[in-house]
Amino acid sequence: MATIAPTRASAAEAGARDIARFATTARWDSRLRTDVTARQFAIAVDEPPELGGADTAPNPMELLLAGLDGCLSVVVHTIAGELGATVRALDLASEATLDTRGFLGTAPVRPYFQTVHTAIEIGIDGLDEAGFASFRDAVAARCPAGTLIAAAGVDFTISWARV
Amino acid sequence: MATIAPTRASAAEAGARDIARFATTARWDSRLRTDVTARQFAIAVDEPPELGGADTAPNPMELLLAGLDGCLSVVVHTIAGELGATVRALDLASEATLDTRGFLGTAPVRPYFQTVHTAIEIGIDGLDEAGFASFRDAVAARCPAGTLIAAAGVDFTISWARV
């Protein structure tokens, strides 16, 4: 269960210091390759051959999953820190499906993910079973990428294993 | 206006060939850095110093925006091809805001984006004004990343300029 219910509070209600801003610029290169810049970082995007690209970089959906994995990792560490717990090890594996007919425009289905599942293996010390349950709930409730996906109505699940 | 209304059709209703699958694996490295693998590609994720990281890679929200930029680019090219139009140039700039109190757990606001805006500059031949309007609508309606963000209730807008 979520410990924080996402609301539609507008940015205008928050103090300026509460609002984080993120920005990218991007330029199409050739075929289906696009080169994105985020601050000092270059992020290339392409498609595999079966989707018409030259397979020089991850595809857009893989970047979304990478953002999800990274986001969950940051939230795990943040909440572990709050609880005085120590993370020894953390592995994540995310899988997603989508119905390509939405993107292709050949059927009235949503273009975005149908399902997303993330399997997390974590070595964490300093939490008993009840504490670990609260920890898991807080991670799911406070992860910006995960809550975005869930709020879109995607069948999004996280499984946890302590190692 | 969307030309295709996203629905909640389940993957089970689609033929197996319609379903695309995407997967990542990820391992936490140190501090807030996580190393993600998608097929043969390595994608690093970190946070800037003000968010507690070592700033060795884009942060998770920047990766989501990179996925959005790349996704819009792929959809632009796909729909241009359907319409017999030629894309000469394509630049994108995305900006997003979020209220950090959701992530930090200090206020009952949603952790994910409040706003996302993408400004697109496109050089495209072979479309009159009416055709370009239909093209724009189809891009917005069929982009998996963009429709995910919109479906989550984010104030998501795209502005277009022909160059």
Q: How is the secondary structure organized here?
A:
The structure is a homodimer of 163-residue chains.
Chain A: E1 19-30, E2 33-38, E3 41-45, H1 60-83, E4 86-99, H2 100-104, E5 113-125, H3 129-142, H4 144-151, E6 155-162
Parallel strand pairs in A: 5-6
Antiparallel strand pairs in A: 1-2, 2-3, 4-5
Helix pairs in contact in A: 1-3
Describe this structure in words.
- The structure is a homodimer of 163-residue chains.
- The first copy, chain A, is α+β, with helices and mostly antiparallel strands and 163 residues long.
- Helices cover 31% and strands 36% of the residues of chain A.
- Chain A has a 3-stranded antiparallel sheet with strand order 1-2-3, with no helix packed on it. Chain A has a 3-stranded mixed sheet with strand order 4-5-6.
- In chain A, helix 1 (60-83) crosses helix 3 (129-142).
- The longest helix of chain A has 24 residues, at 60-83.
- Chain A is globular.
- The relative contact order of chain A is 0.15.
- Chains A and B meet through strand 1, strand 2, strand 3, helix 1 and strand 4 of A and strand 1, strand 2, strand 3, helix 1 and strand 4 of B.
- Strand 4 of chain A pairs antiparallel with strand 1 of chain B, so a sheet runs across the interface.
